[in-house]
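Newbie here. two chains, one complex. Structure please?
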Amino acid sequence: MLAALAASAPAETPAFAGVVDLEGRPVTALPAGPGPTVLVFTRTDCPISNRYAPELRRLGQRFAKRGVAFRLVYVDPAETPAAIREHARAYGLGADVLRDPRHELVRLAAATVTPEAAVFVADPAGPRLVYRGRIDDRAVDIGRTRPQPRTRDLADVLEALSTGHALPPRTTTAVGCFITEPR
Amino acid sequence: MSTLLALACGRARTEDVPPAPPAPASAAETITFNRHIAPIVLRHCAPCHRPGEAGPFSLLTYADVRRRAEQIARVTQVRFMPPWPPEPGYGDLAGSRRLTDEQVALIQRWVAEGTPEGPPAAPPSPPAFTEGWQLGPPDLVLEVPQPYTVPAEGTDVFRNFVLPAPVRGTRYVRAMELRPGDKRVVHHANVLLDRSGSARRRDAKDPGPGFAGMDVELESDAFEPDSHFLFWKPGTAAVTEPDDMAWTIDERTDLVLNLHLQPSGKPESIRPVVGLYFTDRAPTRFPMLIQLEHDGAIDIPADASDFVVTDEYTLPVEADVLAVYPHAHYVGKDVQGFATLPDGTKKWLLWIRDWDFAWQAVYPLAHPLRLPRGSVLHMRIAYDNSEDNVRNPSHPPKRVVSGNRSTDEMGHLWVQLLPPRGEDRWALQEALMRRRLEKYPGDFVAHANLGAALEARGRAGDAMEEYRQALRARPDSAAVHNNLGAALQAAGDLDGAIAEYGRAVRAQPDHPSARHNLGSALVLKGAFAEALPHLREALRLDPDDATARNNLGGALLETGRVAEAVAQLRRAVEADPGSLNAQYNLGRGLALSGHLDEAAAHFEAALRIQPGDPDAQRELAALRARTPRRR
């Protein structure tokens, strides 16, 4: 399912040597296929991330059949594969789960908090970031949350991409748990 | 049997968190975890951020804190954590969780400088936390019968669970501990005492465990004013009362748990448990909860960003303020409580400048605030019903009125007052209801409660007028007809009383007190046959009503049903061997049915209860005249 990025991408594509699956096998997070890939940065103990689990599940179901791949990226190097597996199971988050203990993907996407989404599309020059930021605008600030979102940023991006629209790169500010640099 | 209606709502108390010792640091000194940060975190964060508590992760070690350092810097800087909404300097509140500006600055510096651990020579150890029940095994444990599942997502859930208290007689409760289940899901809880069965009736109508509702209003048939805040929030160990201020429960009491639940992202099953700790010491000090509110004035136009509701209450007697509990929903913005003394001095109770429903709490005062007679309590709540209020449940904003749904508003400031004498609570109640009538002329609850307060203060005539006013607002109120009947009976108008009790019984045939009163009044009038069905019904509704049973036995005797009378009177004596009337009536019944020795024993028992009682003496003498050889 996860095609090796290095096999089809130019040499300058970063090698994600530290990105592993829950068995500890190195993987590349970005498929070489034609469809967009969504990385959602998360961790097991961030309440803001956890409350998005049902929304992420819905988005995954809605866009998977339209060629969009969702990958959950657990950013805290201290979280064990067993704890992550149990977390993903409890929250119904599916099987496409990665660990990024060296924050290679975090840096690639310039993610700062969990949850934060990064959408890449395939490009002859390598995977290209077209969106990074919030899933929607429910969380306005730490401790300030709307009862319902007014804009569904990630869904809007994926809707445009999956209907063949080219998008200029766009970023929004995500609100969540800050990602701490690993040592 | 004087009764009245009272409206009840929620209340609370928290433990004290002693302030962390100052951690001095010079500008040149390196800020380290071990020396500067750990004392702050272990005292102010770890009580909730440890396994099994409400915090989503533990903050007990350097590794715990370092891997969340940026997050901690941010949430302390914006003062989201530790949660303490009241503005410093406006009120003298106990248990402040607020970090000092210096502590916040230290955390920022530590993170900016790379989160050094410091010399590991003496790593600070977390304080010892008590596992399980914080006060030891409770005297009584009440558990919600079935688990309740909080859905994975959606808006906040408000659920109420009814817990009957299986006790006999009156018990004094000195402490309560609530273990809500998953503390990460239960955001806060109020415990209310329901002595009317009204919460049970609501529960029966709502499918699934418990019943829905953001705020619970209970009706009570007795003046048992809400006196204590029974409130849980994360970090609350146990709700403990002073030795002489226990609260009471009895076999009629249901505890009602009013829970605010927040979906977590996955379905969560909770099953709250309440532990009660009893004392034999009856309370000698009686606080009372006073509610400032003006929900009738809440009619907030869409887009209004500063809609203000106020209320005030003038103390008719001196009293101490012990605690305050502000309450508004999602459109609330700014909540102020203060008192003005007769000399014009303004005393702040609290000021919350950024009201957040999710972090509501009861705030005990650090020291009781003595308010002289004539002081005025003030509530001022401002609402923001514009788009700028991100918590606004409606987008675009809609007109908001008062109500129990999360899209409705409320504006309450509950104040726990302790007057010098228990009977002063009637004066507080009278003033509260007169204030309510200013806000809501003709209001049923105010007239009914005012009547009861006046009756208790010895003003029977004024009380009856208030009851009649209440009945104008609600002609079918069994409770008020019953109260008016009792007042008429006390004033010597037995026929008037019987007429009112009759109206009460017609309005609500299963009103135990009205049946009791009507049957007993008919006995007094000598209408024994007429009394029988009402007394039988009173006993069906409340088998523990020993007075009704005795009256029934007496009425059965008078109508010649001796065998049934003896059976009822035996039960009456068994339930209350110290009842003069039950002993006397049983003696008569036994004498009539030929059990002369046994009859004599009960007349003797009656005479031990009331030496020289002429009726018992006469009956006993007659009995001895019939059986001279055996005496």
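Moderator note: Strands of chain A lie at 37-42, 69-74, 97-99, 113-114, 116-121, 128-133, 139-141, 144-145, 170-171, 177-178. Chain A touches chain B through 29 residues (CB under 8 Å). Thread marked as resolved.
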